[in-house]
Amino acid sequence: MKDIQRRGKISHTSKNKCRIKNIDMLKAVLDDKGITYRENCTVNLYGSNRAKAELAFKLDGWQYECAVTADGEILYDHYGSKHGTKGLLGETVKEYNKQSIMAKVWGAGFVMNSWEEEVKDGTKIVIEVM
Length: 130
Hints:
With 130 residues, the chain is an alpha+beta fold. It is built from 2 helices and 8 strands, in the order ββαββββαββ. It has helices spanning 23-33, 87-107; strands at 4-5, 14-19, 37-44, 50-57, 66-68, 73-76, 112-119, 122-129.
């Protein structure tokens, strides 16, 4: 976690497996969900840990903001947040992934119907080309 400055002995900071490659698409997803964000800032995490963020956003019920680093990693700290809210990050990332896939398909000029099927590790997008 090269973008985190650690000053305390304990860190609750985690990385999400997703990499954000299109920051504007993530901003659009956050706007659609009514989530405010900040750009080019430093995020305070548990204790005195800090992270440099290209984009930072705070989910409802979370104590700390999530930080999207310059290389697209999502760093977050759910410590001290409201119980039952950890899934909000997964939902946000899932919507970002869905929009990214759909943009590529539309960009290729396909007209389609689509639907989602939940799978263990995320969302599977099924596409029918017409």
